[in-house]
Design a protein that fits this description.
This protein has two domains: about 140 residues, no CATH class; about 120 residues, no CATH class. It is globular. The strands form four sheets. Strands 5-6-7-8 form a four-stranded antiparallel beta sheet, covered by helices on one side. The chain is of the alpha+beta class and about 300 residues long. The longest helix is centred in the C-terminal third of the chain and has 24 residues. Bound molecules: zinc ion (ZN). The site of zinc ion has 8 residues, from loops.
Length: about 300
């Protein structure tokens, strides 16, 4: 090549070479086994429609359909560790691994949790799941298969979250709690229940025991309040100023008229009731009694290998 500017032919040749080199490098870098790795099994829409997720926690595709990959061996091992399930980290890790568009599963609004877990279960083990119940009439154990897909197709009404609650001249804006706060609440409640058993078994006289129980119940009451206030996104003052500070909000609810707490609780109940009822209709093979049982997710059995 001359030291003068390259001719158009030379330039063309150089560009071709660079292109080829780049494509070769890409081949070397890309694992040839990629096409043998986990591919999306299904695509799902979230009940929240991507709303209520903190910015950056979800990469929401324009068509609203999120790919779901099956669990890997590593995911199954994570879920077999009891600690990983109790503190929620195991579930979060598996969601990140199976749904690459979810960047921070701790932020998922509670309205989306069931759909996400069912989708991962379907992507991993298929649409059918073994389920067993005891007949309420003759107590015979009834074992059957349920189609999980029916629960994915259920519409969830999240409109109630958009109606504000008014108290005097304040507007309370609510939102679904995220997995982080729901998980923290259940850990707290679990801990208090453990303490009840502990105190009960302790060798204390009646008064000492009562004093300790009172302490636990006081804590439980605080937890109940916190669970309700956890769904407040912010409180808007008459001047338009929005208070979002968690401590201020807790303090306000704990120290204001009881009607605030009652209104919040009623709204929560209304929202819970608007959720589709995941129930299963079945007939007892022993006595022919027809009954309906609620379908509940027990993480321990839900992620059990379907082999
Ligand atoms: Zn029966």
């Amino acid at each position: 090549m001359s030291i003068e500017s390259p001719t158009p032919e030379e330039l063309q040749h150089m560009l071709e070479q660079t292109k080829q080199q780049k494509s070769y490098q890409a081949d070397q870098q890309g694992n040839p086994l990629t096409s043998y790795m986990r591919q999306p099994q299904i695509y799902i829409k979230l009940p929240s429609g991507g709303k209520y997720w903190r910015e950056g926690s979800l990469n929401y595709p324009s068509n609203g359909e999120l790919p779901v990959l099956s669990m890997s061996t590593k995911d199954e091992l994570i879920l077999k560790s009891p600690d990983a399930l109790i503190n929620g980290q195991g579930v979060v890790d598996v969601i990140h691994h199976c749904m690459p568009d979810i960047k921070d599963a701790w932020e998922m609004p509670i309205v989306d949790v069931d759909t996400i877990l069912i989708a991962i279960r379907i992507a991993s083990y298929g649409e059918n799941m073994d389920y067993s119940t005891a007949c309420p009439k003759c107590t015979a154990i009834n074992e059957y298969e349920i189609d999980l897909k029916q629960f994915l197709d259920m519409p969830v009404d999240v409109a109630s979250y958009d109606e504000t609650i008014t108290y005097q001249d304040l507007n309370l804006k609510i939102k679904p709690q995220n997995y982080r706060s729901v998980n923290a609440s259940s850990l707290d409640i679990f801990e208090q229940q453990r303490l009840v058993t502990l105190v009960d078994n302790e060798n204390l006289d009646a008064d000492e025991k009562q004093a300790k129980f009172n302490e636990i119940f006081k804590k439980m009451t605080e937890l109940t309040v916190r669970n309700i206030t956890g769904s407040i996104e912010y409180i808007e003052m008459p001047d338009g100023n929005r208070v979002a500070n968690k401590e201020y909000i807790d303090d306000f609810v704990a120290n204001s008229d009881r009607s605030v707490f009652d209104d919040l609780r009623k709204r929560q109940e209304k929202i819970n009731n608007s959720f589709p009822d995941k129930s299963v209709n079945t007939t007892c093979p022993e006595c022919n009694h027809a009954y309906t049982v609620p379908f509940t997710f027990d993480q321990a059995n839900f992620f059990e290998s379907a082999s």
